[in-house]
Amino acid sequence: MSRQGLAKLLRANAHHGAIPGFKRNLLLREFIPSAGFSTRTMSRAALDFMVFGEAYLYRTRNALGQVIEMQHLPTINMRVKRDGGFVMLQADGGEIEFSQEEVEHILNYDVEQNIYGLPDYLGGLQALLLNEAATLFRRRYYSNGAHAGYIFYTNDPNLTEEDEDELKAQITASKGVGNFRSMFVNIPNGAEKAIQIIPVGDFQAKDELEKVKNITRNDVIAAWRMNPALAGIIPENSAGFGDIEKIDRVYTSNEIRPICQLFDQANDTLREDRRFHWREAPNTGETTT
Asked: What is the pTM of this model?
């Protein structure tokens, strides 16, 4: 799975691009920084984890060999060596090698292999790409300049050339914004349907864009396991999605705190006085399942 490809897909869809940052923010809300693990490090590592399903941290040691700080290593450039250890690719083609003991590798386990982590949203990539294609189709539809705003049709045999020129000038002067153009046609004694516009695959008239966008949007947020109320979705009913505070608590307990537990492995190698902690979950007496 191309890391560069996954990174570029963040710009293909509004929800797919915003959700990983939002989940990162929820994780930061629970995070209590320390001298060994800063908010900046957690912010970068958490975003890497949301996008790529894994994160890499460099263990900084003191003269006694104790791990005193964790530093972020960009996941997009990290590779696992076959003989053990890691390597970070450089922009100039060079490589920086790390031993197994120098890097903390936090990954989302994949049932097919245990070398790299894998994000959970991959099942929604086809919906994501279809959503992008539908948006690009509509953009090109408006940008191609080949369709008309309307056709002003007359069949008056007594219409003079001067009148025709005057009508053309007025219609041209009142054209709409962008690529929409209006057209004047005069066919003396023309039949009722002397001019017809027969659309081929009229995407706009059948409201196919709205259907495709809504269906693929739902697939994208489902692939991210994101609650619609937290994903910026406008409810289609007057009742809305319910109590947003309860939704937030349940989502944090079921989705964010398990990710916190994965990051806890970094504490196993940090000195006791350098470890980070998580905020305690509020005791509301409500079930979170």
From this structure: 0.79
